[in-house]
Structure prediction request, 421 residues.
Amino acid sequence: MREHTGAFRGPDTDHVVHVARQPIYDRDGIMVAGELLFRARTTATGADRSDSVATARVLVAAFTEFGIRELTGDRLCFVNLTRDFLTGRLPLPFDGSQAVLEILESTTVDDEVVDGVTALVEQGYTVALDDFVPGGGHEPLLPLATYVKIDMLHASEPEVRAAVAECRRFGHLRLVAERLETPDALRLAFTLGFELFQGNILGRPHINSTVTLAPARLTRLRMLQALTAEDADIDEIAALVAEDAALTLRLLRATNSAALGLNRTVSSVRDTVVVLGLDRIRQWVTLMLVADLTEADPEQLSDVLVRARFSQFLAGAAGVPGDVAYIGGLLSALADLYDEPANRMVHGLPLDPVLVDALTTGRGPLGDVLATARAYMTQSAEMPPAGSLPTQTTGTEDMVMAYLSAVRSTNATLAELTADV
Prediction:
């Protein structure tokens, strides 16, 4: 059995995710949208890659690391997509109201792409064409698109005018002047009647960063197997989610994104699974398999899971549901790991108010459980002497047994997950 100190180390910089957001303005100078772009580091001035992995990382980060509202608020969100997403090889685990799907100019438009985009539009997604050039092969998508972006930096004025004229044959299209770098280019875009404007002269991409703890790959593979079973069981899926701290937090944030307009809060992992639904969870897990390029620190994962399980074991004596205490202990531990106040950690998550209150103020029986678990695990590497810890929820001997049970349970889980690695 490995020794648990309960003291969290600061997350490695390899586990920081960066998403850049560049604003898009209307003719009145009001920011109405933002385009999300993958960045490998905060000093990057351009996208490092434009393949499906980069797209997957943007989607996972935007919806489950940051929360889409934190990045774009109530404005439109433009996201670049590659062929794999357009043709259904990779899933889009969000509904059509949450993002504008931007089709890259490098995408070869054939029957498969047209059919895929047609299906997406019929499902309620909004489509934008990036870097449209007449004769470039993207004309079959013009009837399906809502937005068309035209490059104002690399195209000559006659080329820009030709692209505008082609698009104006379709009265429903809204034109976006992109890569605006000079006042002359901006004036030309206004003269030609563009509806929207994007470029460094108006606003450079702003990089947003947050710490991420990548879920264990084997957990996700096993979960994907369980999700694809004909008789998929919600309780089994919830148990698998609960084994991974990072995945739980990601799906909580995805629940918030998926539940726009849904008056529903969650207080357990099972609630999260029910709100998202098995199909949506399957889509997110698939995308995370593509997106995660690094693995979480096993010791960090272990410490977080021990705190969550410890809280769950303490809950019974306090009259608190164990599944509620589990998710409370998990979020409390992640707040410590990320060195973030609990109120920031839970911001935007669709949590039950009692759980939020316990995490942010420490009040109530659940607050006592979480405070006891935290105090016990953060004092020292030595087993604390009897009577030195808060015992609002249980006696000291029972608390020691609960802690050891949490360690054994977590070690068993992690040993099972790594047995085949």
User: Anything to note?
Assistant: The two ends are 19 Å apart (CA to CA).
